[in-house]
Every structure is written in C-alpha cells, then in structure tokens.
Amino acid sequence: MIPYGRHKIYPEDIDAVTAVLKDSLLTQGEQVPQFERAVCEYTGAKYGVACNSGTSGLHLACLALGVKEGDIVWTVPNSFAASANCARYCGADIDFVDIDPQTRNLCLNHLSQKLNEAAKHNMLPKALVVVHFAGHSCDMASVAEITKPFGIALIEDAAHALGGKDALGNAVGKCTYSLMTVLSFHPVKSITSAEGGMVLTNDANLATLLRRYSTHGITRDESLFDTENRDQPWFYTQLELGYNYRLSDLHAALGRSQMMRLDSFVSARLALAKQYDDLLVELPIKRPLLDENSAWHLYTIELVNHEREAVFKALRGRGIGVNVHYIPIHFHPYYKALGFTKGMFPNAETYYKNVITLPLFPTMTNEEQSEVVTQLTEVLKSEVTK
C-alpha cells in the first residue's frame, strides 16, 4: 500500500532523541526552548510556545484570547474538527464560513457578507480561526483587511502549512496579520516531533498567557506572588485554571532535528505536486491550484464524472492508500446537535462529495507516483460515470 502520507526519520533524528535519553532531563530541560527558538528563527515570529499537539495549541490560543461562554468563534467547515472544537472547549459558540471552491480555503466574499449580517444582529465573532488547507496559505492580508473594522482576533490554523509562504512572500507563522499561528508536528505534517504543536505570536503578553495556560496556570514569576511569599525559593502559584499541555524534551529534540530538513521536505512536496499537475492533466478531475508557495501537505483532487465511494474503494483495492480530507465539521453528530444541518455550507459540501486525497510525501519515488497515476487512470476508465 502506498500511503497518502509518510514521515521520514533520519539517523541524526535518532541520535538527537537518544542523546536526550542519556541526559538527566526527559522533560522541562533545554530541548523545548531550543526547538521554540528554531521555529521562531525560521518563521520570523518573536515568540513560540511548544505544546503536546496542534489541538492543544488551538485551545491555548483561544484561552489566551479570553474566549469564554457567550463568545462566538468562526472557522471553516472544511477542516479537522479541532479547528472548531477549540472554541467549544472554552464554552464559546461556533459558526462557519463557507470555502472558496477554487482555493478550498475560507471564501473572502462569504466572510464579508457574513460579517456585515452578523454586525446587524450584534452576533459578531470574538475570533476567526483561519485554516490554511492542504498547506496553501489563505489570503491573510485580505482577511485582515475585511475583519479589522469589526475588531476580530485572527488565529491562523497552520497545522498543514509550516514551510509555506503567503502570496506576498511572508513565511507562514510570522503572524504578519494575525495574533497567533498554530502549528502541528504530527507524523504526516511538514516535520514531525511524533506528537506535538506550537503557538507562535509577536505579542509578549499573549506568549506569557500561552505558556502559563500550557503549564497548569502556574507561574514562578516572583512579581506575581503575594508579598509574604516572595522570599520562599520553593514557591509557585496558580493564577488560572490551566492544563498540562507541555511538550517533552524527547519530542522537542526530534522536532528540532527535523527542522533542519524542513526546506528540503517542502521542496520535495512541491516537485511532486508539479509532477501530479502534469501527469493528471488529461484525466476528468479537478486538480488543486498549483501554488508554489504552498507547503503541499495534501494533494487533493475532485472527481467530476465518477462516484467518489466506488473510486475510493477501487484504488484502495489496488494498493493506493487514498484518503478523504475532510468530512465537513458540521456533518458530525456533535455539531448537528448544536443545530447545524446539511445544506448550510454548499461549497464545502460539494467539495467533500467529490474529493479524494492522493498519496504525497517527501520520500515518494517517481515509481510510486507513476503507480498512483496509472491506477487512478485505470479506475476512472473502468468505473461507471455518474
């Protein structure tokens, strides 16, 4: 089976992890701060707070913004559930903005229309979680311009997009237009720390809150202690209800080592995407836009004349590990119970009905890619059209 995604671990990665195993500190040592600095140096962000998953990072971002019951957060339906769950963890309401059928990212027209309508009814969101789907950066400059008059905080969900750039050449994660950017280091992402995530920001106060919320809400900052406790060397104090979202030094060492190959990983993904673009040009499918600034986490096609389920099963049966990204968030029973129904976000729903994710990973060989294209071609010829 050729998988849709696959990580690559090098001997240097293994050496980095085993070096930590031989050290005295498996967690709360020097590896996490070094990993945070490496990601900040790469992206241009001022502060990075590592955590144990991208999902934790999204939750931390909402906590740092003070998202709470009675607030509203918006995101897109075409994403993994964590992009919306982060608001629900804080007790906030969630709503969605439909996607652009071409970019598969948030639709700027829908965003503008929805904001103007929400303003009339005093239902504006406190925050907007902007998802960079498949590694393609959303048009953050335009999103910022549209949302600025409404005072909405922007969080970038860049779980797919580390190593990518926006249309103006800004590195994803620099937080040029947003308050925070959230990354994921799951094994199929741009780099891996096995499990892990990070929140990037240029705001020192947000960075302090992010770090505190990720460590139980506890601080050892003496300036925040009661006067009588300031001379007690063992003392610490809990200021908020936080969480244990720390990343271990083992994970950080792996992530830091992988960072050294990030550019080569993304370059390999881009080369494969370009080859797919050429190899698939004659097939009755809709290809993704060929974005040279993308991190190319996923290569997703949309079927035009074929039933997705039949094609999916046939390809799996032929050893091609295709996948589907994503089931629209509002289709899940949990969100249906909140009042969402099919038909509310037609662009995302049409996309979901026809999408298949083809294998794409940095170490994919030309032979493997050729096999994917050959099997897809044969399946589309053999399967009955709609």
Give a written overview of the molecule.
With 386 residues, the protein is an alpha/beta fold. A seven-stranded mixed sheet has the order 1-7-6-5-4-2-3, with helices on both faces. It has a three-stranded antiparallel sheet with strand order 10-11-12. Strands 8-9 form a two-stranded antiparallel ribbon. The radius of gyration is 22 Å and the shape is globular. The chain contains 13 helices and twelve strands. Strand 4, helix 6 (140-147) and strand 5 form a beta-alpha-beta unit. Helix 3 crosses helix 4.
Keywords:
386 residues, alpha/beta, 7-stranded mixed beta sheet, 3-stranded antiparallel beta sheet, 13 helices, globular
Q: State the helical fraction.
A: 25-40%
Number of strands: 12
| Ends distance | 27 Å
What would you call the shape?
globular
Q: Spans of 5+ residues with little confidence (pLDDT < 50)?
A: none
Mean pLDDT: 97
* Major beta sheet, strand line-up: 1-7-6-5-4-2-3
Strand content: 5-15%
Structural class: alpha/beta
DSSP summary: helix tally: 13
Main sheet overview: 7 strands, mixed
Rg, alpha carbons: 22 Å
